[in-house]
């Protein structure tokens, strides 16, 4: 998958807009206005309170659960000091993380969080790939954390069974199935936004109560205790690392894991009011509450860890249960009851993780960062949740957790993934925000020099974590104890080569629409250039290369997934501020397939090729004329088509429509069967076989005759010269490399319908003669067109740019983003169009 299109410059000096009359208070209206200034339409109701936000964020981080879930890992590697002092070290750096994220969230409060910030803060040439990488890592962190939690909950259930039935044999598939049940239960809880918000805020208090209960009960009942020397100075190292320092650094993983995913509040910014202040507050409180619940609990665990070897090597496979059983003096019921409380808190944390993941997935899909983004970006109108994103995330968790059945060691590597994936997003956000060009990007929460220092510390520690936690925990490294997190990182970040984009331009020369799937016809994509603007005075079609202000008209298809209208908006960039304050800012809704009965017809000629078109009428003509400042008509081609002059052939054909000589064997077989029928065959058999032979023969004849049909003269709509325009991503990247560092060419300026990635060389598409999609759909490429003057237009202002970037079936087929594309024919030299000159 290619990087998402995130081209939404943020106006950080935006004046507060007037309140909208939607029954909400002024502050919510301001929140909506700020979100729209970032290029998004509000979709979520802002009905989560500050307390509920803190509750969800705390339960996702849940540091004390992280300590309990894997406290033995760090202790085995580097001794108790790794956990006790590690929590202090990581707690301090997590505060830096919270300040960094808080400042950025205050300036740009959006559910996209880190990937959106990176898209705005990164240099133009790095913006899209950096944003895509960041969004993917952000989502991967949530999926990895949830998969680990689901398997751990399954482990808890099986450990309890093993404690009561020592002969019980634990299998990995049992673990996976139980985790699967917890996973989908947590997903279903999130189907109601209000229910999950209330549950998780209450869950925070239940969680704190359980921590207090553990801190009081475990040391009081435990028969043996360690001393302060063991708790605060033990550096026992059985990891195999010869360097005590290296063992300590690797052993910090448990403490760092406990502070994973502290960015939860960032991704709920569109669910709360006044997020510029609420989100930073929630981030800092999440770190504070997490530390003051995790650190005392860690001391308690070390205090009761008197028989370390017995606890670590427990037959139940869960050291925590063995510790509880030891503390309660072999009272299995009490140990299981205490573990059940912990598991209950873990299940609440899993519900929080699903809320976290789904918001990232939904936001990323909203910016076309995922295949089938149109589906994952839907918000259920009644439930107010991204229901399809929830289901996708739960499915990804189910798939990833199957790793436990293949290799327990590989699955345990997920612990490092919970640290590394988010760290990558924090690193890029912090580094790009430190660039001098981004000094002006500030929100209400801004700590000045402290914020700058926090960003430096965030980047430094995250880079350290990414490197250190990729090392094996134990030495010498073998296939059974290897840390496979780097391999998992590669799996998440490597996307399929040969992907492509689809663009359609419903109204010629206006901004296009990017789609995931579309119907392709020999005359072009469905909806593509079926409308155009006609200059009444000059009697010619309007072209964005000549009338640069056309790029200020942005189109979209509505409603989603059942297109009926073209929504046309006019304004500067994505803020839709009106260059002409005297025009109505309301969008224009154009029916996608108008009722042409009663519409006057006019004759238009484009490139020596005339055709009839329908005049859409005064309402539409006046809307465009008022904004352009001269008289224009909106024309619709309807069922009319233009003849194609020159050497352009059919654009799309079905390759399976071809002669099939082997089909002749079918009637031959029936004829042979007729003559070879035995004497005692039923009386009806000869007649049936004869009929089958005749029918199959006729079918074959008709099939072969169908191949002799004369090809029709190729036709197109309001496209200039051809039904489709194809370019490669490699060529686009080559153009960008030739531009100054601060400039990037908007890919839509090429006005292409299909953009293919995976080409080896720039401009190799000039030699392509035929493409094949999904192995059965072919597209003939017949001519190269000249450079389009639309590249010179500044899309941000609608004026001529001053910089180098200009700042053969008659039926149809469905083409989808991510379909496999193959170049099936090549030319020895570039083709040249022979289209007649005017």
From TrEMBL:
A molecular-function term among this protein's GO annotations: catalytic activity
This protein's record includes keyword Flavoprotein: no
Membrane topology: Multi-pass membrane protein
Entry GO terms, CC: membrane
Predominant place of localization: membrane
Gene3D superfamilies named in the record: Amino acid/polyamine transporter I
Keywords of the record: Membrane, Transmembrane, Transmembrane helix, Transport
Residues passing through the membrane, by range: 51-71, 77-99, 131-153, 199-220, 282-303, 334-356, 387-408, 414-435, 447-472, 484-505, 661-677, 683-702
Domain MOSC: from-to ranges: 698-838
Protein known as: MOSC domain-containing protein
Superkingdom, taxonomy of origin: Eukaryota
Record's subcellular location: Membrane
Pfam family name, one: AA_permease_2
């Amino acid at each position: 998958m290619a990087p998402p299109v995130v081209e939404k410059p943020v106006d950080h000096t935006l004046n507060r807009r007037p309140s909208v009359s939607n029954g909400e208070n002024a502050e919510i209206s301001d929140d909506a206005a700020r979100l729209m200034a970032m290029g998004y339409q509000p979709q979520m109701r802002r009905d989560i309170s500050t307390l509920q936000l803190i509750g969800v964020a705390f339960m996702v981080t849940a540091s004390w659960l992280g300590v309990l879930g894997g406290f033995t890992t760090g202790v085995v590697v580097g001794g108790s000091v790794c956990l006790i002092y590690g929590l202090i070290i990581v707690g301090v750096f997590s505060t830096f993380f919270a300040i960094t994220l808080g400042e950025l969230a205050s300036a740009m409060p959006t559910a996209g969080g880190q990937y959106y910030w990176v898209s705005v803060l990164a240099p133009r040439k790095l913006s899209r790939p950096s944003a895509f990488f960041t969004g993917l890592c952000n989502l991967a962190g949530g999926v990895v954390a949830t998969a680990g939690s689901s398997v751990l909950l399954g482990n808890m259930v099986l450990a309890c069974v093993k404690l009561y039935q020592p002969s019980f044999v634990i299998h990995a598939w049992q673990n996976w199935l139980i985790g699967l049940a917890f996973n989908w239960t947590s997903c279903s809880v999130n189907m109601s936004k209000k229910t999950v918000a209330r549950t998780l805020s209450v869950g925070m208090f239940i969680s704190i109560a359980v921590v207090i209960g553990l801190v009081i009960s475990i040391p009081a009942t435990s028969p043996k205790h360690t001393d302060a020397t063991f708790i605060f100075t033990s550096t026992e190292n059985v990891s195999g690392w010869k360097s005590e320092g290296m063992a300590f650094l690797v052993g910090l993983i448990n403490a760092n894991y406990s502070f994973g995913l502290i960015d939860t509040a960032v991704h709920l910014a569109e669910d709360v009011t006044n997020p510029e202040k609420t989100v930073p507050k929630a981030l800092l409180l999440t770190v504070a509450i997490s530390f003051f619940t995790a650190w005392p609990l860690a001391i308690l665990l070390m205090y009761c860890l008197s028989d370390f070897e017995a606890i670590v090597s427990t037959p139940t496979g869960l050291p925590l249960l063995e510790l509880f059983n030891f503390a309660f003096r072999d009272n299995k019921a009490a140990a299981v009851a205490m573990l059940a409380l912990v598991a209950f808190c873990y299940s609440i944390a899993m519900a929080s993780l699903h809320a976290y993941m789904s918001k990232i997935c939904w936001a990323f899909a909203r910016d076309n960062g995922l295949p089938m983004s149109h589906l994952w970006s839907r918000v259920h109108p009644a439930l107010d949740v991204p229901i399809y994103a929830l289901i996708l995330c739960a499915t990804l968790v189910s798939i990833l957790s199957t790793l436990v059945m293949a290799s327990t060691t590989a699955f345990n590597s997920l612990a490092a993934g919970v640290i590394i994936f988010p760290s990558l997003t924090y690193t890029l956000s912090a580094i790009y925000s430190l660039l001098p060009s981004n000094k002006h990007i500030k929100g209400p929460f801004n700590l000045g020099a402290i914020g700058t220092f926090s960003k430096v510390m965030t980047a430094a520690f995250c880079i350290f974590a990414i490197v250190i936690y990729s090392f094996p925990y134990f030495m010498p490294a073998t296939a059974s104890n290897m840390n496979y997190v780097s391999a998992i990182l590669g799996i998440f970040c490597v996307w399929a080569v040969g992907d492509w984009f689809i663009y359609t331009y419903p109204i010629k020369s206006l901004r296009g629409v990017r789609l995931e799937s579309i119907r392709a016809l020999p005359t072009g994509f469905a909806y593509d250039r079926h409308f155009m603007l006609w200059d009444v005075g000059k009697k010619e079609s309007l072209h964005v290369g000549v009338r640069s202000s056309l790029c200020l008209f942005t189109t979209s298809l509505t409603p989603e997934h059942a297109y009926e209208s073209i929504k046309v908006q006019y304004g500067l960039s994505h803020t839709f501020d009106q260059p002409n304050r005297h025009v109505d800012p309301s969008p224009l809704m154009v029916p996608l397939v108008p009722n042409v009965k009663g519409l006057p017809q006019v004759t238009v000629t484009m490139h020596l090729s005339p055709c009839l078109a329908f005049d859409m009428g005064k309402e539409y003509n006046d809307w465009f004329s008022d904004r352009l400042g001269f008289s224009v008509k909106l024309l619709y081609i309807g069922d009319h088509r233009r003849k194609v002059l020159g050497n352009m052939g059919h654009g799309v054909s079905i390759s399976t429509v071809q002669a099939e000589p082997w089909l002749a064997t079918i009637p031959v077989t029936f004829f042979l069967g007729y003559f070879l029928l035995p004497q005692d065959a039923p009386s009806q058999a000869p007649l049936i076989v004869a009929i089958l032979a005749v029918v199959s023969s006729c079918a074959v004849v008709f099939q072969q005759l169908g191949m002799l049909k004369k090809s029709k003269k190729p036709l197109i709509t309001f496209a200039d010269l051809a039904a489709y325009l194809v370019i490669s991503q490699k060529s686009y990247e080559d153009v960008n490399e030739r531009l100054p560092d601060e400039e990037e060419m908007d890919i839509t300026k090429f006005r292409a319908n299909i953009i293919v990635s995976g080409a080896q060389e720039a401009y190799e598409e000039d030699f392509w003669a035929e493409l094949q999609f999904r192995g059965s759909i072919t597209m003939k490429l017949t001519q190269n067109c000249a450079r389009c003057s639309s590249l010179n237009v500044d899309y941000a202002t609608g004026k001529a740019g001053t910089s180098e970037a200009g700042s053969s079936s008659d039926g149809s087929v469905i083409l989808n983003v991510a379909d496999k594309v193959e170049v099936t024919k090549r030319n020895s030299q570039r083709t040249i169009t022979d289209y007649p000159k005017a």
